[in-house]
Design brief:
Elements (H helix, E strand, L loop, with lengths): L6 E6 L2 H12 L14 E4 L5 E6 L7 E6 L1 H13 L23 E6 L5 E6 L5
Parallel strand pairs: 1-3, 4-6
Antiparallel strand pairs: 2-3, 5-6
Length: 127
Amino acid sequence: MAIILNHVVVCAADNLTAARSFADVMGLRLGPFEGIDGKFATVPVNDSLTLFFVTADSAAPQHLAFEVDAASFAAILGRLREHGIPFGNDPRDPANGRTDHPLAAQGCFRHDGDGPLFEVTVGHPAR
């Protein structure tokens, strides 16, 4: 059997706000609250991966990277601009407004502010 990543827990100051922001930018929908006492705000990413956002006082830095096609990237970039969310081509400067990703055809980073650093690339980043 292949190993499939089923879910990732994402820490944020406010789980619902962070989940809504991620879902909105990525063009996804919120899922149901899950977990013990319904503490996770969920965002299904695809058939095998769901992000579980949890409210936490503090969290270790996280970096989540997503590969999309060119049309999806253009739509994501449009939503970032529409909502005035800073983005950039460098994880050390995720607000420089550039999308010329150093390891992929095109890409950007976005810091959620109270959660992880999200990366979206067109094509597979070089390894």
